[in-house]
Write a structure and sequence with these properties.
The protein is an alpha/beta fold and 444 residues long. It folds into two domains: 131 residues, Rossmann fold (3-Layer(aba) Sandwich); 282 residues, tm_1862 like domain (pyruvate-formate lyase- activating enzyme), CATH 3.80.30.20. The protein contains 18 helices and 14 strands. The strands form three sheets. It has a six-stranded parallel beta sheet, with helices on both faces. Strands 7-10-11-12-13-14 form a six-stranded parallel beta sheet. The relative contact order is 0.09. Helix 8 packs parallel to helix 10 and helix 16 packs antiparallel against helix 17. The structure holds cobalamin (B12) and iron/sulfur cluster (SF4). The site of iron/sulfur cluster has 10 residues, from helix 6.
Length: 444
């Protein structure tokens, strides 16, 4: 069969970009799971147009909430032409009954074992509507991801995964609900074998949620990485900086930057979101420790928690300056389907937009408690503009001059994005209650 795997863009604007930071790791993995008698092509819609009239026996689309609208459009177009479509990924896993309205099959959860079954069923003409596991599949014995099928225009194309699942259950995050509340690891030797296939990749990415969740595993992995002399980036928690031996090993194995979910500088928010393993008073000291080992810290901050008022933006900006954070990703709190926040806001009738295109972490889709939706939107635009102003980028680039060839293009991209402020979704205007009125409501 001829199989097309698609990573959809986030909107209907068909504007293509020249370079994209990361590929969607699910697609080269699906390609690797596909038996070799099939032909597979991968398209990232951010880089390339889709030929809807191509001769495909099956189109597989990976779907996040923010890309769901576009994914459904693509699926509908193919199905109009008689092509079979399968949807998978975190959004169809959260809302399979919605997804099946646009597909012949929906794969719920992780694809290993299910994708192969789906392809066999399609060949025999007995495709099922839903494919799902009883429990998450083991990560031992995964095939090497087909990174060779990816477009070359990614800032970081060589991406690997060592763990899935997370024992924490932060209220705004989908990971533990969908990947399970237990870390599952790929055997270190399999990860290393896969990396070994790309001797020319100087910098690699581990797309884990927490590469240091299990220190014993991380130690083994970092030791095995040292001989490769690669540079790598990943996600982790501040706990790494509290374990000096592991931090040193991470640096020796080539870690140059870690993406860390600080989420908030307001400890009350962290408590309410069950993320109190983050302690605000330790942030600066731990960031300094990463810097001592030459590791840049990319901080993720979310705005709009119930304890946030408008002062949160300046408080966060002051913190970022004083702590010398290297890079930051700002998000507006987004009630992702399947999360605790989604359940809470739905019960409290605070969500005013279910337009998945707005669930991109840059638009307000609910009533915050201590701000108006407009204030939250404005504050998000304000902090993005301030942090990615040219003088501040210049200062940070000088500090991180060694990695300026990665750092500067990413900063300029964020600068450009921050100069195009996001507007509040139109639905906010016709939302049934204003925040002020809602405060009188017994549910809030
Ligand atoms: C790495 C990562 C990123 C990277 C790279 C993103 C990328 N392009 O892949 C960066 C940092 C850029 C990023 C950005 C964002 N991310 Co992100 N990211 C992740 C992370 C940590 C890992 C994803 C990954 O590569 N996994 C490895 C692959 C192999 O697993 P997988 O994608 O789940 O695929 C498996 C199954 O889902 C299934 N499957 C997936 N697709 C398909 C398709 C078919 C046809 C089939 C059959 C099966 C199938 O099979 C695969 C193998 O088992 C996840 C968290 C997580 N653990 O999932 C969050 C996550 C996916 N991100 C999330 C979000 C919200 C974002 C942002 C919107 C955040 C923001 N503030 O902007 C942006 C969106 C950017 C974009 N348009 O891609 C959310 C999505 C939630 C949701 N409901 O949509 C997640 C789940 C994290 C969370 N906190 O909840 N992200
Ligand atoms: S935010 Fe991080 S620590 Fe919290 S549940 Fe998600 S992956 Fe786990």
């Amino acid at each position: 069969m001829n199989i097309l795997l698609v990573a959809p863009g986030t909107d209907n604007l068909q504007r293509k970009v020249r370079v994209v930071p990361f590929p969607q790791a699910s697609l080269p993995l699906l390609a690797a799971l596909t038996p070799s008698h099939h032909e597979v092509k991968i398209i990232d819609e951010r880089l390339e147009n889709i030929d809807f009239d191509g001769k495909w026996d099956l189109v597989g689309i990976t779907v996040m909430t923010a890309t769901a609208y576009r994914a459904y459009y693509i699926a509908d177009e193919f199905r109009k032409r008689g092509t079979k479509v399968a949807l998978g990924g975190i959004h169809p896993t959260a809302l399979p009954d919605e997804a099946i309205q646009h597909a012949d099959s929906v794969v719920i959860g992780e694809a290993e074992g299910l994708w192969e079954e789906l392809l066999g069923d399609l060949e025999e003409g007995k495709l099922k509507k839903f494919y799902r596991h009883d429990c998450p599949p083991p990560l031992a014995g995964l095939p090497c991801s087909r990174l060779d099928l990816l477009d070359k225009r990614y800032l970081l194309r060589h991406v690997f995964q060592t763990t899935r699942g997370c024992p924490h259950n932060c209220g705004f995050c989908s990971v533990s609900t969908f990947m399970g509340r237990r870390y599952r690891h790929r055997p270190v030797e399999e990860v290393i074998e896969e990396i070994g296939h790309y001797p020319n990749a100087r910098i690699i990415g581990f797309l884990d949620d927490n590469i240091v969740g299990n220190p014993r595993y991380s130690r083994e992995l970092f030791q095995a990485l040292i001989p490769f002399r690669k540079k790598w980036i990943s996600q982790g928690t501040l706990k790494l900086a509290e374990n000096e031996e592991l931090l040193k090993l991470a640096a020796e194995s080539g870690c140059i930057a870690l993406f860390v979910g600080f989420e908030s500088v307001n400890e009350d928010n962290l408590k309410k979101m069950h993320k109190n393993f983050n302690q605000v008073d330790k942030y600066k000291k731990l960031i300094d420790r990463f810097h001592e080992y030459g590791i840049m810290v990319i901080g993720s901050f979310v705005f709009g928690f119930d304890e946030d008022d408008y002062s949160i933006f300046d408080r966060t900006l002051n913190f970022l300056e004083s702590a010398n954070l290297d890079f930051a990703q700002f998000s507006i709190l987004t009630p992702l389907p399947g999360t605790e926040v989604f359940k809470q806001f739905t019960a409290e009738e605070r969500i005013f937009s279910y337009d998945w295109r707005k669930y991109d972490f840059a638009h307000v889709v609910y009533h915050p408690l201590r701000m108006t939706p407009q204030e939250l939107q404005d504050g998000y635009n304000y902090i993005s503009r301030q942090f990615y102003s040219l003088p501040r980028i210049g200062k940070r680039t000088i500090r991180n001059w060694r990695y300026a060839h990665y750092f500067l293009p990413a900063s300029i991209y964020y600068h450009w994005v921050s100069r195009h402020p996001k507007s509040l979704p139109e639905e906010a205007a016709s939302a049934p209650l204003s925040l002020k009125d809602k405060k009188q409501s017994p549910v809030v």
